[in-house]
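Most newcomers find our protein records easier to grasp once they have seen one. Read left to right, the backbone structure tokens trace the chain's path through space. Nothing more is needed to start thinking about how sequence determines fold. An example says more than a description, so a record of this kind follows:
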Amino acid sequence: MPRDPDATRARILDAAEQEFADHGIAGARVDRIAENAQANKALIYRYFGSKEELFDAVFAQRSVAFVEEVEFDATDLPGYAGRAFDLYEQNPRTLRLATWYQLERPDGALPEIMASNDAKLTKIAQAQAAGTLPATFSPLELLTAVRALSMGWTLHTPELAQLERPSRERRRELVVEGVRRLVAG
């Protein structure tokens, strides 16, 4: 059977996404990634260089997928927050990877993420200049608040997680309404 480098690379990225989401960079083990990907450990290093570079590849891939899956519209930030909430609910690994990234890569500067953030901030500034969004908050403050609201239900303390939460539909409604009020001026 001929080897398929693209398929092997995809299996490695999938296995690495799960490993990094569960254990972060420091706790992840290349041996487990290789085993779960049904790939040779040496291939991981050949394709990605190091465990840290593999994490960066996984995080960049997940971030690009998020941008492709969750349409950003500066004139409809409540809708964007709802779509982001949906993705976080459907794929909790996205937030787990983002949390590990923040913890273990505090000075990170992946080009894909920087470009996406710059584009969003520019669109918010343009909407503010056009009067579509209030200028009460800077673009960075506004984007940060919208993201915090969309992530909020998955990023609370274990003690709050033990309490009975509102339904998924109600949580989404709260996110969208919170952002609607935020941008109402």
